[in-house]
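Revision sheet: structure tokens.
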Amino acid sequence: MSAYCLFQNLEITEPKKMQEYVTQVKPVTASFGGEYIVSGGEVEVKEGDWQPTWPVMIKFPSLKQARDWYDSEEYQPLKKLRESAGSFSAVFIEGI
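Predicted:
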């Protein structure tokens, strides 16, 4: 069963660091089977009061692969880089 990682970029305080993260994270994500399916773009909220700034959604073949990516040695320095670039929230969602 597929899994999705949804990041909500709440605030980017260090744009250069964020750009460095974006450049470096894609090959690491791909090595765990991750595929970026949403990265920003126009958002139209239909219900509720969610106010996304820059949503990012990554599809993985399984929840295990999503967790393996997030917890991997390869991702840890990138995670620290991302965290130093702003504030974020993230969730894993198991789906079809």
